[in-house]
Amino acid sequence: MTGRSMSLPVLDQPPASGRPPVAPGPGHPFVTRPAVELSIGAVLWIALYATIAPLSSWLVTGFFGVDGGTRFGTALQFFAFETPKVLLLLVAVVYGVGILRTFFTPERTRAMLAGRRETVGNVLASLLGIVTPFCSCSAVPLFIGFVESGIPLGVTFSFLVASPMINEVAVVLLFGLVGPGVTALYIGTGLVITVASGWTIGRLGLERYVEPWVYALHVESGPEAERPDGRARLAAGRGAVREIVGKVWPYVVVGIAVGAGIHGYVPADALAGILGRGAWWAVPAAVALGVPMYSNAAGIIPVVEALLGKGAALGSVLAFMMSVTALSLPEMVILRKVLRPQLIAAFIVVVAVGIMLVGLLFNALL
Fold first, then answer.
1. Which of 111, 170, 200, 279 is the most exposed place for a label (fewest CB within 10 A)?
2. How far apart are CA 168 and CA 97, in angstroms?
3. Which residues, 6+ apart, have CB-to-CB distance to 42 below 8 Å?
4. For residues 275 and 282, is the Cβ–Cβ distance under 8 A?
5. d(CA 174, CA 184)
């Protein structure tokens, strides 16, 4: 070493090459490409959302020349306003959930649930079912993986109920059509039903009605996938929009069209009499109608909004919607590959009773 002291660089001097400091840009570590994409997307989304109300009003009364005070005008105005609003909300939420899903792979979800106490596991499984809304086709491999990992049967069913019932499509459609109050009510009561249903199934000791080959099967866990970077996560968000919105938008349009017809033409007294608070049989009838029905949130929630607008009781409408989304016929058919009919029947009865109790409670209190 020499006796000279080391001098510190002067930060405000230009580099030795004589070039001025480079201002932060898209390639700079402080202004990343994902941040630019999110910022531009947010600005465009807000601008489009702000134009929906004036544009839909002009389209009905100015372009088509329809009187908004007539039944047809009321229905057309409802359709012209709600369709782009719901689709824009759907794109935004599905994009965000698509990014969120990159943090919750099936392997990681199983690992988070394995080894938990049953009651804690029911709650955690229900919460994970919301943020990891796997489709019905994933029901069998997820069920096999959960059972093989030693996760209790009741905890597995809490996840399987929450995943279709409180998914991102249901939440965004409810928020867009009926507001935050009913949406929060739906999420809260849905969580109660999923936790209670899973806990009840766990207490019934129905493991013997799982097909024996499921317990004999050993599912190998693959290596943990490499953690995606920011660009990969945004690509996953775009992919989710293409896959999910690309599939459900026709149901959204048809559902809103049906809701518009109800909104404009169906007398309020008729629906209030069928699904009102005064009819004791309204909630059981709503559940009985919803259980065998094949639909999804995209098609049924616009109808729900129209029913509420016409005076139908909130408890009856929520019971109908929950039974349609939580007990879909395709998922029951798929689960038959791993469950015997006795367990499927118990699953349907337990969830349907929970939904019915929630509907009756809300009709009595609200």
1. 111
2. 7
3. none
4. yes
5. 9
